[in-house]
Design goal:
379 residues, Aspartate Aminotransferase, domain 1, Aspartate Aminotransferase, domain 2, 7-stranded mixed sheet, 15 helices, 42% helix, globular, aminotransferase
């Protein structure tokens, strides 16, 4: 049969994790925490399951969780949203991204995507019959050229996808970026899909500029977040989308035929976690900043050039002084010969530059980070 996604194969994340397991390498490739979810959250999950909350939840989410998400939005972004009509719980942020793209993309539509980009964006756009218009952000600053964005717009442009804090560059969009984005959205009547799964991981006192902070931007936005990232439970596949009532209605039309509903006892456990342990969210930035600083300090003696990490739990390294291998080959060398698994940056691009940059995940125990750094410093 003819493939609907002929250029899509096994993801680089699965490949590198497989190699890490095969060679017993330290896995700093795939973006998942090495540490466990909070004990409170696990205990509540077990309690709700034991109490029989194991059947379908309402498709848009358990009301208790919707209410706590709305309270979180109000506390963090001073934005009032109506839980029942604007908050939709999803089976992970990737599902929410897929559903938002399917809900708004018609055949022939164009959606602006900034590379390096999360690898689910373009396939979802293509499956909806649209076309991803890739705008490349270049190392080392990975800043958006808004004139280039303006030049890429056409009468077919439907939406822009923004990811901040940004995976894989670990950059945060600025207030100036937000102003220019807002101007384009309004002037050209565009929608925004705002991927904010690392929203609580910003470093050095920098502010996360959520689409929820501006009424006019939010009026045309799908804001997507991840409990898996926030509470170290990526395997639960729990996320959510906050959007205005009219956009949420379209989102839910698709969502009900993708997963219908999400893990019921986990929803109730997460609602309790948000209500009774809000400090976890507030402390997350400092928690990950310490891990970033540990890895950066340990890599100082190395021959890598360390690029700034402003948010997320990723760090980019330029290996130009070490090897002339392309980044895919260099990552294979690292895992097989050095014992550390990383991700090549080129896989996040439609048209990869010739940069020699790799991505490390520092959502790991301190001992793991120090052992990996020791190996990398040996190069």
């Amino acid at each position: 049969m003819e493939s609907k996604l002929p250029h899509v194969g096994t993801s680089i994340f699965s490949q590198m994790t497989g190699l890490a397991n095969q060679y017993q390498a330290i896995n700093l490739s795939q973006g998942f925490p090495e540490f466990d979810a909070p004990d409170f959250l696990k205990t509540r999950l077990a309690q709700y399951s034991e109490q029989g909350f194991n059947q379908y939840s309402p498709s848009s989410g358990m009301s208790a969780l919707q209410s706590q998400i709305a309270a979180l939005v109000a506390r963090r972004y001073n934005q009032t949203v109506e839980p029942e009509s604007t908050v939709t719980v999803t089976s992970g942020a990737t599902e929410a991204l897929f559903v938002a793209i399917q809900a708004i993309t018609q055949v022939g539509d164009e959606v602006i995507v900034f590379d390096p980009a999360y690898d689910s964006y373009a396939p979802a756009i293509e499956l909806a019959g649209g076309k991803a218009i890739h705008i490349a952000l270049r190392a080392p600053d990975f800043r958006i050229d808004w004139q280039q964005v303006t030049n890429a717009l056409s009468d077919k442009t439907r939406a822009i996808i923004i990811n901040t804090p940004h995976n894989p560059s670990a950059k945060i969009i600025s207030q100036s970026d937000v102003a220019q984005l807002k101007n384009l959205l309004i002037k050209h009547n565009l929608l925004l899909i705002s991927d904010e799964v690392y929203e609580h991981m910003t470093f050095d006192g920098q502010r996360h500029f959520s689409a929820l902070l501006d009424e006019e931007i939010f009026a045309r936005s799908f804001v997507i977040s991840s409990f898996g990232k926030t509470f170290h439970c990526t395997g639960w596949k729990m996320g959510y989308c906050v959007a205005p009532k009219n956009l949420s209605a379209e989102f839910r039309k698709v969502h009900q035929y993708v997963t219908f509903s999400s893990f019921t006892p986990a929803q109730l456990a997460l609602a309790d976690m948000l209500k009774e342990h809000a400090e976890h969210v507030d402390e997350l930035a400092q928690f990950y900043q310490q891990k970033r600083d540990t890895l950066v300090q340990a890599l100082q003696p190395s021959r890598f050039e360390i690029l700034p990490s402003e948010g997320t739990y990723f760090l980019l390294l330029d290996y130009s002084a070490i090897s002339q291998l392309d980044d895919v080959a260099f990552c294979e060398y690292l895992v097989k010969e050095v014992g550390v698994a990383a991700i090549p940056l080129s896989v996040f691009y439609d048209m990869p530059p010739e940069d020699k940059i790799i991505r490390l995940c520092f959502a790991k125990h301190t001992d793991t980070l120090l052992r990996a750094a020791e190996k990398l410093c040996s190069l």
